[in-house]
Each structure stands twice: as structure tokens, then as C-alpha cells.
């Protein structure tokens, strides 16, 4: 586990974007695993700036997102499809047909999960998976519990996760109660993982995830089993890292 702590946001974003662009330079057809949420946004901005300066191209790359809400139309402003289009895809030269996000409106959600997992098997493995971390240690929407699910599946969102995401909706009632998420096994199949966390509010869960025991009660702690994880933290999130 390679944990790096940055004093300046800009340096964190440049380093994160640099890991992604180095991969694309050596492997233009790379398969990227992408995340929504606030943690990767600064890195996405940096990537957009680099594409605009012709320093990197996503033209041959493809991407798989970690998750999507169940029941929001894709065009809803808070769907993860809309988020990715606005924060990244519409500003870079990636082929939108090769950006995969689970369909949270599929008529048969179990079949959609199986099809997503199969597509990952056919086109993967993911070369580089980007992750944020929930306050409760979730990765993707793999919420803490006594058991975790390996493959892509439908998950009931914990109340704390719905509350954390309510900031993007008019009210808590509007936050979906379910999501489709890659499973922990799906995530761990990526060749390399890049986890980003920012802010004091993530300091304690970062300590538990990377300095505590491996436990399903903190899904991110399972990343300790992966041989190639890079963690980028700002000083506040890395407060307890020795
Ligand atoms: C997003 C995702 C979530 C977030 C996590 C952290 O696709 O799967 O696990 O990465 O909830 O969210 P932020 O970055 O908003 O703190």
C-alpha cells in the first residue's frame, strides 16, 4: 500500500491525473474504473485540462463506473451518468459508447447486474480503478455489514449514506434507496487501485481502513489484500497516517 499525503490540493490532483495519463500513454486502450462523488473531481478537472492541451487522449480508452442509483432516469441531474457526462466525459475525447455505467432503470435489475459483470469480464480487467471512500468505509456502494457481496449487485443504501448524499438533492426523501454497485470482488480484480480522500471528516475512516484490521465492517479495509493500491490524501484526511 502506497499512501501519499499532500499539503496542496493542486499537487494531489496533478499526481492523481499523472497516474491516469501515464497509463494511457503506455496503454492507449486502457480500461478505466471510474467513481463519482466529490473526491475525484479535482483529478477529473486536471485530466480535462490535459486533454484540452493535447497532452493525453482518451480516444481509445473505455471506462466502467462503480455504481448507479436505482430508479433515477439517466438524464436526471443526480444520476451518475449525468455526473460523469458533466464532470468528465463531455469535456474529453472518450467515445461515449465505450463508457459503461450500470443501468439503474433496467426492467430486470438482477439481469442488468449479471450483464455488467459479464461485460467487465469480456472487456476487462480494469487497468486502473479510481475509488473514493464513504464515511462508513464503503467502496462503490458496498456498505459495511457482516457479509459483503463479490459481484455486481443491487444494494439497499444505508441511511448514513443517503444522508451524506442528500446534499445533492432537494430533500432526503428524494435520495434513492437502492443502487447497483460493482461488488468487492469486482473491484479487487482491477490491476491497480487509486483511492482518493480529502478532508478531516475522512481521517478516522482512513485510519480504520488502512491501519486497522481487515473486516467487512469496513469494506475499504479489504483493499489491504490488493497488491497494487495507491492512496492519495490531503493533510486533513491523512491526519492519523504514520
Ligand atoms: C461513487 C462511490 C462512492 C463514493 C464515496 C465517497 O461512485 O462509489 O463510494 O466514492 O461515497 O464520496 P465522496 O467522494 O463524495 O466523499
UniProtKB/TrEMBL annotation:
<feature type="active site" description="Proton acceptor; for ring-opening step">
    <location>
        <position position="138"/>
    </location>
</feature>
<comment type="pathway">
    <text>Amino-sugar metabolism; N-acetylneuraminate degradation; D-fructose 6-phosphate from N-acetylneuraminate: step 5/5.</text>
</comment>
<feature type="domain" description="Glucosamine/galactosamine-6-phosphate isomerase">
    <location>
        <begin position="20"/>
        <end position="226"/>
    </location>
</feature>
<keyword id="KW-0378">Hydrolase</keyword>
<feature type="active site" description="For ring-opening step">
    <location>
        <position position="136"/>
    </location>
</feature>
<keyword id="KW-0119">Carbohydrate metabolism</keyword>
<feature type="active site" description="Proton acceptor; for enolization step">
    <location>
        <position position="67"/>
    </location>
</feature>
<feature type="active site" description="For ring-opening step">
    <location>
        <position position="143"/>
    </location>
</feature>
<dbReference type="InterPro" id="IPR006148">
    <property type="entry name" value="Glc/Gal-6P_isomerase"/>
</dbReference>
<dbReference type="InterPro" id="IPR018321">
    <property type="entry name" value="Glucosamine6P_isomerase_CS"/>
</dbReference>
<dbReference type="InterPro" id="IPR037171">
    <property type="entry name" value="NagB/RpiA_transferase-like"/>
</dbReference>
<dbReference type="GO" id="GO:0004342">
    <property type="term" value="F:glucosamine-6-phosphate deaminase activity"/>
</dbReference>
<dbReference type="InterPro" id="IPR004547">
    <property type="entry name" value="Glucosamine6P_isomerase"/>
</dbReference>
<protein>
    <recommendedName>
        <fullName>Glucosamine-6-phosphate deaminase</fullName>
        <ecNumber>3.5.99.6</ecNumber>
    </recommendedName>
</protein>
<comment type="function">
    <text>Catalyzes the reversible isomerization-deamination of glucosamine 6-phosphate (GlcN6P) to form fructose 6-phosphate (Fru6P) and ammonium ion.</text>
</comment>
<comment type="similarity">
    <text>Belongs to the glucosamine/galactosamine-6-phosphate isomerase family. NagB subfamily.</text>
</comment>
<dbReference type="Pfam" id="PF01182">
    <property type="entry name" value="Glucosamine_iso"/>
</dbReference>
Amino acid at each position: 500500500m502506497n499512501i501519499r499525503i499532500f499539503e496542496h490540493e493542486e499537487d494531489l490532483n496533478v499526481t492523481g491525473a499523472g497516474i491516469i495519463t501515464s497509463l494511457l500513454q503506455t496503454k492507449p486502450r486502457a480500461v478505466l474504473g471510474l467513481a463519482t462523488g466529490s473526491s475525484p473531481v479535482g483529478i477529473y478537472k486536471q485530466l480535462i485540462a490535459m486533454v484540452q492541451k493535447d497532452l493525453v487522449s482518451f480516444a481509445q480508452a473505455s471506462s466502467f463506473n462503480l455504481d448507479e442509483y436505482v430508479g433515477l432516469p439517466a438524464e436526471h441531474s443526480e444520476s451518475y451518468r449525468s455526473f460523469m457526462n458533466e464532470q468528465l466525459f463531455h469535456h474529453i475525447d472518450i467515445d461515449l459508447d465505450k463508457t459503461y455505467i450500470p443501468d439503474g432503470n433496467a426492467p430486470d435489475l438482477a439481469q442488468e447486474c449479471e450483464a455488467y459483470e459479464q461485460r467487465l469480464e469480456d472487456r476487462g480487467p480494469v487497468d486502473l480503478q479510481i475509488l473514493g471512500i464513504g464515511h462508513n468505509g464503503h467502496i462503490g456502494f458496498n456498505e459495511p455489514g457482516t457479509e459483503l457481496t463479490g459481484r455486481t449487485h443491487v444494494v439497499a443504501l444505508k441511511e448514513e449514506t443517503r444522508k451524506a448524499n442528500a446534499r445533492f438533492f432537494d430533500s432526503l426523501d428524494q435520495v434513492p434507496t437502492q443502487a447497483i454497485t460493482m461488488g468487492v470482488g469486482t473491484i479487487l480484480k482491477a490491476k491497480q487501485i487509486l483511492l482518493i480522500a480529502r478532508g478531516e471528516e475522512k481521517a478516522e475512516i482512513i485510519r480504520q481502513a488502512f491501519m486497522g484490521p481487515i473486516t467487512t465492517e469496513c469494506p475499504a479495509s479489504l483493499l489491504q489484500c490488493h497488491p497494487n493500491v495507491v492512496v492519495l490524501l490531503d493533510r486533513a484526511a491523512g491526519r492519523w497516517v504514520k
